[in-house]
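In practice, a research group might receive sequence data for several interacting partners and want a quick structural hypothesis before committing to experiments. The following worked case mirrors that situation: the sequences arrive first, and a predicted assembly follows.
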Amino acid sequence: MADSIRLRVSRYRPDTDSEPRWQEYDVPLRKEWTVLDGLNHVKNEVDTTLSFRWSCRMGICGSCGMNVDGEPKLTCGTFLSDYAPGPVMIEPLANFPVVRDLVVDLSDFMEKLPRVKPWIIREDDHRTVEPDVEYLQTPEELDAYKQFSMCINCMLCYAACPVYGLDPEFIGPAAVALAERYDLDSRDQGNRERLDVLIEHDGVWGCTFVGECTRVCPEHVDPASAIQRYKLKAAMETVKALLLPRGAR
Amino acid sequence: MTDLRLYRPRVSTWWWTRKRTYFVFVMRELSSIFVAWFVVYLLLFVYAVGRGEAAYQRFLDWASSPWVTVLNVVALVFVLLHTVTWFNLTPQAMAVHVMGQKVPAWHIVAGQYTGLVVVSGFVFWLVTR
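A structural hypothesis for the assembly, expressed as tokens:
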């Protein structure tokens, strides 16, 4: 194994650059080093002006997502040795506006997420329930939504989704997966409210089932599945509205 | 808040040539046109049969012309792609539960192929009997 690898890093400095340009750094190639370790080496030893987000280094916080060789990845779980002999191309997550270097602006997602009401909605209202009451669940009820609750909002699915790239109005994979997480929760009663949001044009129907969101998801959430299930629910509601008398819906 | 000068990247028209998975997706979308063509072809066929012997013969002559044959071979390839890709995607779209147990993905896919074989067998019997 060679003892170093070249990183081709996309740099964008908003005060001087009109568009991103490449800058290359050679970093030590060690078996246990991830792309994030390489970037931290650059930041600490070579070029302190390089900007990128990171926090936990263990695939939990979801802040170090970047496009590595064109593929959205959590850089803390992506090993440099898999890209030897290099160079490794490191770009900010695709489909998002770039703030600086590898840092992207997530405000679009922050605005979209609360629209699907990703919290437990109860018809009975908390005021009518005893303060210390517990909503118990069986292991089966937990299993029903657990997969969708693993989302860490890392935005890799948005970076992989060509629909979101072409039409930023699309609510996007993670938001739908999180809506499904609460819909499938036995304690929740908010299905109707979420469906009203997702049945709109920029909701689930924007999705053309490319499936790339599921392929890149580091937590195996399978947002593509959540979206298709929602389409099925939305279609069933429409059919019911057409066929059934008002009272039976 | 400070005024940010954001760089907004544009999606290239050729985005779908960048990755194999994107390319397969676009081909799958394109396959719908050929599915529609087979529907039109079948309707033309039924219409010709309905109008009698001479019209049926004219249809067969037209259908065996080189360009229709080439078109149908291309259409067949796309329809096969359409079938295989959509069959593979079905378990993702449908979470089927039987007696509280989630049905494994391959059971759903196998069920569809079984259906395809049964229907094809019936059509084959109908045509050749």
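Before designing any experiment, note the following. The mean pLDDT of chain B is 92. Residues 15-93 of chain B form a domain with the 3 helical TM bundles of succinate and fumarate reductases fold (CATH 1.20.1300.10).
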